[in-house]
Amino acid sequence: MDLIQNLELEILELREMLKNKEEDLREAKRNKFSKSYDNVIGTKSNINIGNIPKWAIERYSRQILLPDIGVMGQEKLMSSKVLIVGAGGLGCPASVYLAGAGIGEIGIVDYDTVDISNIHRQILHTESDWCKSKAKSAAESLRRINSNIKVTPYTIEFKPENAVQIASNYDLIIDCTDNVPTRYMLSDLSIITKVPLISGSALKMEGQLTIYGYRESRNEKSSGPCYRCLFPTPPPAAAVGSCSANGVAGPVPGAIGSLQALEAIKLLVGRNRENLLVGRMLIFDGEDMTFRTVKLRPKNPKCESCSDHATIKQLTNYEVLCKMQSKEKDLDLNILPQSHRISATELSKSLNTQRHLLIDVRSEAEYNMCHLEDSVNYPLEQLYGEKFDLLVENIKNNDNVIFICRRGNDSQIAADKILKVLPDAKIKDLSGGLHAWAEQVDRRFPIY
Ligand SMILES: Nc1ncnc2c1ncn2[C@@H]1O[C@H](COP(=O)(O)OP(=O)(O)OP(=O)(O)O)[C@@H](O)[C@H]1O
Ligand SMILES: [Zn+2]
């Protein structure tokens, strides 16, 4: 028995020794690539490879081999500064590849914190980053990928008051945000500061990508239309989709963010305008796996931002322009009078004593995810379809009709539409929606 115990102890010791040796080996390999091993082969060297240190040649050799990049291109990448706005679905993959490629300085802006629902696609954040600042979490991950580059996190909202000052320190901006006011701001910013902008978007199974504000040189005019040329007036707030409301498949922003990084690399190494997505837009459809490139409308000769008659010389208030708030993506509407609203707590009490017709106006997919017991699903768009009359008839015969949605906005829209036809109907909407239900009544109910 003693012999077995002794042998087991010896095995444990040997395992520990082996672990230490392996760690030493890893450390030695790491040192070989670290800055301390910065054995620079300068231009004076008889080996004509430009100004790139040995470690960089070894580290970036697979992309230096590409004729489009080469040693000169790598030098440019290593002295470039890129600002990434948004450390979400697009910002994560875009910055991973730019850090990997050895971009000298990466700035990453995001005012938000990591939510558990972000992690399926926002690949720089892990479970242990939950509730951490996204900009900081992203910066930490990027430094782990490449310790030879400088990464600056900005844990702030990128807005007119700070945008020009921050952007002026960079050679390129990458739009990885998800809201219209910021898109207008970044487009104007790119024209004002003459810093080109690579703009991407992804929603559901689709994504898009283009370059705005590209110039052959700083003194030349920008080529291709700007965002304002294409969309002189902002779309109505209700028409703009979001990942939180419409969903997104993780690999879709993954693909678009990666392609944003590719366009960034090409632009920084000096590829021609014709090779870049200037005046063209790439559209990816993950549903049937197609990539299309469409030619964009030419510059608007009367554009307020980028034409010869431009009136916008400094950034303005984009939330006013878009009649929506960029920060509060899940804007709280106030359509119904208080008499037609019911709080989650009141509804929970009322359900114990009275019969109700609970109409859930979310999509079928959302309803299948979670719903209140005995509620029926009537997706909002059906209110504009042929089943509307049937619904009205149903409501006429009910004394307690409650409209329900995720946050209490669509439910108000639905109730309001019915009240226009049936002004005396006994209709209320669940104020704050199922989020409020989860917070006030049933903590087991999922918040998404
Ligand atoms: N003006 C801005 N300044 C700083 N960060 C911004 C700004 N506008 C948007 N962002 C950030 O851009 C990122 C966009 O990421 P993404 O489209 O994946 O959406 P999300 O807000 O993280 O997720 P979800 O929509 O699912 O809640 C977000 O992290 C958001 O905080
Ligand atoms: Zn324009």
Automatic annotation (TrEMBL):
Cofactor: Zn(2+)
Binding of Zn(2+), residues: C226, C229, C303, C306
Coiled coil: 4-31
Binding locations of ATP: G89, D110, K134, D178, N179
GO molecular function: adenylyltransferase activity; ATP binding; metal ion binding; thiosulfate-cyanide sulfurtransferase activity; URM1 activating enzyme activity
Keyword tRNA-binding annotated: no
Rhodanese domain segment(s): 352-446
PANTHER family cross-referenced by the UniProt entry: ADENYLYLTRANSFERASE AND SULFURTRANSFERASE MOCS3, UBIQUITIN-ACTIVATING ENZYME E1
Protein name: Adenylyltransferase and sulfurtransferase MOCS3 homolog
Source species: Danaus chrysippus
